[in-house]
């Protein structure tokens, strides 16, 4: 189902009045969230100069103050819709609801668990100069019903408005709502749990576990309760709310009590060994699903009734390839070679951590320059508009010039500061890739070692059974 949320953008308290409108347009047209602009379009305006057209409309009708625009967000059920379908649906909504009266920009974002659309339109009509009117009951009687009709047209689930009315009536009467049934764990929680489990497997200390989560792209926060946030997510997720096994105490216990036997206790390290690698069920990640969908749309993958077998086989082949490359890379012929390879992977991971700490220390020396360059980016759009003749951006342009002067005093131009930031980002990315490779080697080695012990246990059981 699709749910519509309505926001409005007031005039800024000081300086440029339409600053919130400008920032909103900049946000929804972010290339990283819209497949490099693929899912951006406009109605009665061009997205590239939508702000200028909206401001010109306001000037023409002398309505530059008060509310500057409106922001609609249409959120779809997770994995119920594709980006292309959502783009068509939102476009039809803009055409039917706003028509020829309002200049609007709409975009589809796919950077979170669920695909959602953004619509920002001018508060002033471009046809007659009247301002947008949002009467009581507009969402309930016009906006959401229109979204529901479009969802039905595209074969999607709809929001039950009657149920919402009943709940509202019960709240007004003071009646208690029926106890809700326990919901299934969301896909986001399941994905976080899988990543945390993998980070625990790859760590020997709690600090290394935290570093593993950071290398996976998570931001960590919280002193009493550890919380994580994926790149692009709006809210954090506390790990201890995912279950008893994810409290800090249990995570430390799981890290310290590894399920793999100690190498010193092994009596057969020098013997050659052969293992059988069985098939296993494994769910696709969100990124893998998106890649599969793109290939399917391009005609590279044909739909088959037994497609689930095809996907599972692809995943198992990938794991087999990892293990084969691991064997060939380290020339493994015995258990001793396997232990040596795992020790090398661990040493490489520690070495990369030390390099990362040195890079962080080096980055501190340029922290002031990088911070100035970051602040410049916040005023760059306004400064460019001011140069094009929009005098209402004079205050922001002045701030931009002062920041440039401070940067010059530090001995850097804007281009040099940009190159400095790019250099640090490139070096950090290379270190992350090397650490990811070392962690993958360590994980692959542990997986092979686990299979070896399983094979030997089964062999001992078979021998014992023959004796009986």
Written account of the structure:
- The protein is an alpha+beta fold and 468 residues long.
- The chain contains 14 helices and eight strands.
- Strands 1-3-5-4-2 form a five-stranded antiparallel beta sheet, with helices on both faces.
- A hairpin with a 5-residue loop joins strand 6 and strand 7.
- Helix 11 packs antiparallel against helix 14.
- The protein is globular, with a radius of gyration of 28 Å.
- About 7% of the residues have low confidence.
Q: What's this entry about, in short?
A:
This protein has 14 helices and eight strands.
Share in helix: 40-55%
Class from secondary-structure proportions: alpha+beta
Order of helix and strand elements from N to C terminus: EHEHEHEEHHHHEEEHHHHHHH
Roughly what is the average pLDDT, rounded to an integer? Answer: 80
Work out the radius of gyration: 28 Å
Q: How many helical elements?
A: 14
Strands in their spatial order, largest beta sheet: 1-3-5-4-2
Biggest sheet architecture: 5 strands, antiparallel
**Unreliably modeled segments:** 176-183, 259-282
Ends: how far apart? 62 Å
**What spatial form do the alpha-carbon principal axes imply?**
globular
Number of strands: 8
Q: What percentage of the residues does DSSP assign to strands (E)? A: 5-15%
